[in-house]
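Protein record

Derive tokens from sequence
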Amino acid sequence: MGQSHYLSAKQNFKFTGPEIVAFIMPLFRLETNVPRSKITPEFLDLTTTVMAETLGRGKEYCMAEVISPHITQVWSTNLSVLVPVLHGGSDISSYNPGLVRNTNLSVLVPVLHGGSDLSSYNPGLVRNTNLSVLVPVLHGGSDLSSYNPGLVRNTNLSVLVPVLHGGSDLSSYNPGLVRNTNLSVLVPVLHGGSDLSSYNPGLVRNTNLSVLVPVLHGGSDLSSYNPGLVRNTNLSVLVPVLHGGSDLSSYNPGLVRNTNLSVLVPVLHGGSDLSSYNPGLVRNTNLSVLVPVLHGGSDLSSYNPGLVRNTNLSVLVPVLHGGSDLSSYNPGLVRNTNLSVLVPVLHGGSDLSSYNPGLVRNTNLSVLVPVLHGGSDLSSYNPGLVRNTNLSVLFCMAEVIPDVLLSWKGSTAPAGNAMLLCIGLMGPEDNQRHAAALSEHVFKHLGIPKDRLLIEFNDVKDSDVGFNGMTVDALGLFKK
């Protein structure tokens, strides 16, 4: 018969109240002579989805169980980005609740090195702008009040421009340029505070730039750029010109032609060209942003090449301030997880082994949550945040017992004996709908004909289900 490997509350998550009861009902159990190799996690996941749709109860009230020594149910959570926990190990309750509820953030802003919360952000800015990433506050702890409010309201920014080290605002930008151009990132203002009037207007109108090129330190226009480069390359960000005012001829032409770069790497502070980058890294990886080189001018050779080649990274992890490479990452985590951003390694250089393995393997995360400095799991997160986020958690139970010795109508061809167990949501019309949906689903994925599948519907009273030393009706937690 096999061994049960269903995802239980005790094994992976801590639930109380209704969530526990949800792990009991409803249940779709199928005994079949179809071989075990056909009972995939994808099939079971789809089964729970079909159950939720036909029962009309919602996925949060459904479960999934697998009876097989080799199959486990996938526990799916749609998280865009879990919030990095403060450096002191605090949970999310210290974040500004208004910020979380009113803003579509793909990444919440890392808290300043001093452990400050988000209260120093300009609330008006957050509410009125669709930000994919909020701008890290300057090292000096300045808030965003120095940004030009008019600029923020009228522009679709994916990332707000970090304020210059001197704290200048954006008032020196050319307003006409901002209104007429689709910028994903506004150009950092020159160290001298020059505006954009020195840009070549023709270039701006004819090129789809997600980020305008920072003007040379000497205030030169773009005429020194290689025209062929601009016309023949789809650049989301043009390369900042070297500090010495050189044009792009010193760039590695092969790099530009062979790589789809959404952002070209800012040149090192010493004015070096891109020849010091690891060519293999650039050619073999689809990078949306190349990692800024460390302040000490190190190239990318210190990255773990294996990590780069085997992972689809939208942003490579900035190397720690001490210059550590990525060798401290858990290789298994990288290979098995679709990461849009790799988690910065803890300041102490810890690897990812302190993550909750169940969470990492079974969850589609666009950004993995940095683990608390003490290595805590996610139980310390603010439950209210989870409830108010777009989470689809599958609780449906689909139990499949394969390789059954089963003969029907004088044949051992694919057949099955199934049961749908539920508290309520049963009846003549309901059962007809359940039978149609489940029979079609099983036939489509397992090849069991509808006339060789028998389904028994079992409406269980809540007084007939026990949990935690009481019946469900006495607990008053599960209502029809």
In short: Confidence is low (pLDDT under 50) at residues 1-24, 64-396.
